């Protein structure tokens, strides 16, 4: 755990006068599950020999081929200062140097939420679930596929806040195209900060927007608290193959310097941006991650990071990305083994699918990805609900279907109890041959918690189901969306803090003209 996570946190900024306390007393209370803590072993597909080969080959890639840090002369100077060879924009890293630099990255850290009960620990045996990130389109059964708006974004934040099995509010849950590009990050952050009290992600689309994210957090949490604690996670994508662009590295520099977490993640489409083989892709993934994490530690030793792996294969007939495939599962699993050997938290998997609708294809592909993520030791699962159409669409019905199914991950991760109650010998003795367990004492004592139950699916007999309209899963999910939004109540927030955030956003928006480019 990082030093910042272990020390007693600084006192937060003002958390409430009388108005805030009155709001808290009147707030609707609902259950949110704690971070998953695995009680089951990780599945490990790769042998020690395979892992050794990948690590050796990745070091060779860094030393002989190198990585490009484009349009970032300061980054090149930083690499020179630690002993890398720099030619033009190409950085060649001697064997062992990147791994040595990575050694200061914490294996576990706490991301603080404005509601301390919703803090999450990232790393170790923990799995934190966060929603879909980045789609420009949204879809629902009523309105179909359309460009996302800020109203859609706010609706997703509310759904994430109300969803029992989600631990995290996420980041760009969808891209609100009705707000100027240079200002939409302000509205998205306001939504996360005011409509939810779960942890959230900062902006990475421009270094100045990362700085805005820091400054808004200083208003929300208090400047001293942010200086001493991690309150944001960010997604820093690498331009695979082997390229680090100035925009993403500039955002990483801001977050690392302020001790805020970064997911350093190659963006891999196998066969297009990485080799078609599992071993070759894992070699490139590890080389890119080593360089990215090492760079974060050059900026600030001890800055919290997460090793990311976003991997999909490609359909060689159409060129479209494919999801939930065996090869993606093998890469997800192998990267988890490499992350544990590196000693950093791991991000991968999600509700990935290529389907255009929340249908059987979406369910199969999503299930394959979610379950492999659990078994592969993922610590932070971005895109865990709502993903559709290869990430182009955030779907409201699929969001609640996926969020509901995340409950199965929680239950599987618990493992199998072996205590006296779980052994159920008293029940077996009581019922004996030929009886039934419905009325026995053990069943009566345990039936409320014995089985996980979906909050969306229909378990009624056929006749009742038919009488109620023969509703399919998408229809049931539409009802679930409506119910959650109808019962939503915003978590309490000190009116003074809200006013300061609103003033900050207004000032920032007024400082420059709108840009949609």
TrEMBL record:
Q: Where are the transmembrane segments?
A: none
Class of enzymatic activity (EC top level): transferase
Keyword tags? Methyltransferase, Transferase
Q: Which Pfam families match?
A: MTTB (PF06253)
Q: Which InterPro entries match?
A: MttB-like_sf, MTTB_MeTrfase
Q: What is its EC number?
A: 2.1.1.-
A molecular function (GO) held by this record is: methyltransferase activity
Q: Which GO terms describe its biological process?
A: methanogenesis; methylation
Q: Where are the annotated segments for Disordered?
A: 1-27
Fetch the Gene3D superfamilies from UniProt: Trimethylamine methyltransferase-like
The protein's superkingdom reads: Bacteria
What family is it from? Belongs to the trimethylamine methyltransferase family.
The protein depicted here goes by the name Methyltransferase
Identify the species of origin. Answer: Octadecabacter ascidiaceicola
Q: What is the lineage of its organism?
A: Bacteria, Pseudomonadati, Pseudomonadota, Alphaproteobacteria, Rhodobacterales
């Amino acid at each position: 755990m990082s030093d910042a996570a272990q020390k007693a946190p600084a006192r937060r900024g003002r958390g409430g006068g009388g108005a805030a306390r009155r709001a808290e007393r009147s707030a609707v209370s609902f259950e949110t599950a704690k971070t998953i803590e695995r009680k089951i072993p990780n599945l490990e597909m790769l042998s020690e020999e395979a892992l050794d080969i990948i690590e050796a080959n990745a070091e060779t890639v860094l030393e002989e081929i190198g990585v490009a840090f484009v349009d970032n002369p300061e980054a090149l100077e930083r690499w020179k200062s630690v002993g890398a060879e720099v030619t033009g924009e190409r950085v060649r890293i001697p064997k062992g140097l990147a791994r040595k630099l990575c050694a200061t990255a914490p294996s576990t850290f706490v991301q603080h939420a404005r509601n301390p009960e919703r803090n999450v620990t990232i790393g170790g045996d923990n799995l934190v679930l966060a929603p879909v990130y980045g789609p420009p389109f949204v879809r629902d059964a009523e309105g179909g596929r359309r460009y996302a708006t800020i109203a859609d974004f706010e609706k997703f934040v509310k759904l994430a806040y109300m969803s029992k099995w989600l631990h995290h509010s996420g980041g760009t849950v969808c891209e609100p195209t009705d707000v100027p590009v240079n200002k939409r990050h302000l509205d998205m952050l306001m939504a996360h900060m005011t409509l939810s009290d779960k942890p959230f992600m900062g902006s990475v689309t421009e270094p100045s927007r990362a700085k805005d994210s820091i400054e808004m957090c200083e208003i929300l949490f208090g400047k001293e608290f942010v200086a001493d604690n991690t309150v944001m996670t960010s997604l820093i994508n690498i331009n695979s193959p082997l390229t680090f662009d100035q925009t993403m590295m500039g955002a990483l520099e801001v977050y690392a310097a302020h001790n805020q977490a970064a997911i350093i993640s190659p963006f891999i489409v196998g066969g297009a941006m990485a080799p078609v083989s599992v071993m070759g892709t894992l070699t490139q993934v590890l080389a890119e991650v080593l360089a990215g994490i090492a760079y974060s530690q050059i900026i600030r030793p001890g800055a919290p990071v997460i090793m990311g792996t976003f991997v999909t294969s490609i359909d060689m007939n159409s060129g479209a990305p494919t999801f939930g495939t065996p090869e993606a599962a093998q890469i997800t699993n192998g990267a988890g083994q490499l992350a544990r050997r590196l000693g950093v938290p791991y991000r991968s998997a999600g509700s990935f699918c290529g389907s255009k609708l929340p249908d059987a294809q979406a369910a199969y592909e999503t299930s394959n990805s979610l379950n492999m993520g659990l078994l592969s030791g993922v610590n932070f699962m971005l895109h865990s609900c709502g993903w559709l159409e290869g990430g182009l669409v955030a779907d409201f019905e699929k969001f609640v279907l996926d969020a509901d199914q995340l409950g199965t991950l929680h239950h599987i991760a618990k493992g199998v109890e072996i205590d006296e109650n779980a052994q159920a010998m008293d029940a077996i003795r009581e019922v004996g041959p030929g009886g039934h367990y419905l009325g026995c004492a053990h069943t009566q004592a345990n039936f409320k918690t014995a089985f996980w139950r979906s909050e969306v699916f229909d378990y009624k007999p056929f006749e009742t189901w038919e009488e109620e309209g023969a509703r399919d899963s998408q229809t049931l999910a539409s009802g679930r969306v409506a119910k959650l939004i109808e019962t939503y109540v915003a978590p309490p927030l000190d009116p003074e803090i809200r006013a300061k955030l609103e003033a900050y956003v207004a000032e920032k928006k007024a400082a420059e003209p709108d840009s949609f480019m």
